[in-house]
Amino acid sequence: MGQSLSEPETSKQSAFCQNDYYKVGSSCMQGWRMHMEDSHTHILSLPDDPGTSFFAVYDGHGGAKVAEYAGKHLHKYITRRPEYANDVSHALQQGFLDLDEAMLNNEALREQMSGSTAVVVVIKDGRLYCANAGDSRAIACVDGRLDVLSFDHKPTNEKERERISSAGGYVEYNRVNGYLALSRALGDFGLKRNKQIEAKEQMVTAYPDVEEREVSDCWDFLVIACDGIWDVLSSQAVLEFVQEEIAQGIYPQQICENLMMRCLAPDCQMGGIGGDNMTVIVVCFLHGQPYEELVNRCKEAVARRQAQRKQRRSQFEEIEQQRTSRSQSSVTVASEEGTGDKAAGNGRLDDDSSGSESERSEEVQTPSLVSAAAEVQDSPCASENGKGENRDVTNNVEQPSVKSSSSATEPTTVKALEIKDKKPVQSDSNNDSAEDSSEEMDLK
Length: 444
Fold this sequence. Notes:
The protein has helices at 65-79, 88-104, 107-110, 158-166, 227-230, 235-247, 252-263, 291-343, 357-361, 367-378, 380-384, 389-395, 410-421, 434-443, and strands at residues 4-18, 22-33, 38-43, 53-61, 115-116, 118-124, 127-133, 137-142, 145-148, 171-172, 175-176, 186-187, 209-214, 219-225, 278-285. It is an alpha+beta fold. Strands 3, 4, 5, 6, 7, 12 and 13 form a seven-stranded antiparallel beta sheet that branches. Helix 1 packs across helix 2 (88-104).
């Protein structure tokens, strides 16, 4: 992470702009870092292409010079490309390389050891283009759901590793040449010195990936941010945070500030997570309607999600109740058998005949419970939380065990019984046969 302040710098630089189509807020914060190295741009209507919007976040490293230069000039290099009129994606890719070459030819920037990520969103004629080089990220909320617009460039990615190796570099400690933790960036000219290959083939390249989308009335908002946010929260978690804030009527610039404070580490001893510079842009789609229309759409989306989660919890609780009920039924049967054993001279108490709590949990579940668990696991509601509650239920299905009325001596009895019969003893129903019960008494 590098050097850190003894206390975080939490003062924020926030901005706001709006027209009939977008309500935009942005904010940046230095945090625990010694210096602020990020830059960002939001332009509702480009001077060289009126009606086209441009939003970008630049996460600098090793200094702020490259990020600052990109924030002022990248959009100009893109709109000046001859392909821009008919092929915006190609213009974005070549514009990134043109800017990088211009900085390389600039003596003041060429010797800089700094670099910067760049994630750019251009919205032109109803189409969205997202160009990304590095590990900053852009996401969209479309009809209440997540759409990831960019993908992080890390040296450990197979495609990135192959390019690094072909250019004469290597990956060590998850870094390019053991130095840089991302594999595409503006600047970082010390890692772009192979004169035998093109700029986009260098071990660290400024050449971006580009994603395209058709923008419709279903689009709710965009979030564009540096990795200081994404290292702490997942894309889905950020979407839900912003969605819930909009549902409360909070304006975008305040949402950006709240999101950064949510991600700020309480101290600087967390391995860098939550200790980075942070920059966020939230772009709300108005579609010519008041902001309150978006607020209502987000309220509905939040309510749907809460209802779905409530339904999943109810389904899980119902299965747990069935499981508990059947376990108790098994305990009752075992208790009744224990009473019969007592009459035969065994001397066990009814209340203790079911064994310990751990032994109860290992009892064989009935087919109806297996079916119920499978239904929840296969249902759409179960898929989202497959790593949590429902998986625990299905993992316990059909575990063979031996039921006995003994508590303290049961493991020894089971082992002796298995040795005698040369096969595991299992219960196929909740009612053990009288023969099993008497055999167990004889062994004791």
